[in-house]
Design goal:
- It is a single chain.
- This protein is 28% helix and 24% strand.
- By secondary structure, the protein is an alpha+beta fold.
- Strands 4-3-2-1-5 form a 5-stranded antiparallel sheet.
- The longest helix is centred in the N-terminal third of the chain and has 13 residues, at 23-35.
- The protein starts with a helix and ends with a strand.
- The relative contact order is 0.19.
- The mean pLDDT is 94.
């Protein structure tokens, strides 16, 4: 299945990766599809709110450190030049009030595909860090 076909599947926002995905679980589900390894199996189903997700991210020193911690053991490393299918931490608007936050996303051409409460959206965003998936 191509990335386009995978992104076209019905994705549902759900904290903790059970019955749907949040922004980082969305990226981890893509990694699992590509590699056959779920890099966050120890986290799936262990939290169910934004506050609980933020506590896990804080425990690792931030989103980028957390992603490094789960991807390095399976041989996925950072890249300075993300390509289609790579994952990243990007800065995106997360509310109608304009609040900006780091979220997980998948590179799709010149865009980053993010999972939002309304489904997958593609936007031109600035990445903070990116990892080469399937290279």
């Amino acid at each position: 299945m191509t990335l386009r076909e995978w992104l076209d599947l019905p994705h549902r926002f759900r904290w903790g990766g059970m019955g749907g995905d949040d922004c980082l679980m969305f990226c981890a589900s893509w990694v699992e599809h590509v590699t056959g390894v779920d890099p966050v199996e120890d986290f799936r189903g262990t939290y169910g709110t934004a506050e609980e997700a933020e506590a896990i991210v804080s425990r690792y020193g931030g989103m980028t450190s957390l992603v490094d911690a789960v991807l390095t053991p399976i041989g996925i490393h950072r890249t300075d030049e993300p390509q289609t299918g790579d994952i990243g931490v990007v800065v995106a608007q997360v509310s109608f009030g304009g609040e900006m936050k780091e979220v997980g996303a998948i590179r799709f051409g010149p865009l980053w595909a993010c999972l939002s409460p309304v489904g997958v959206v593609g936007k031109r965003l600035r990445h903070v860090a990116a990892w080469g998936v399937g290279r």
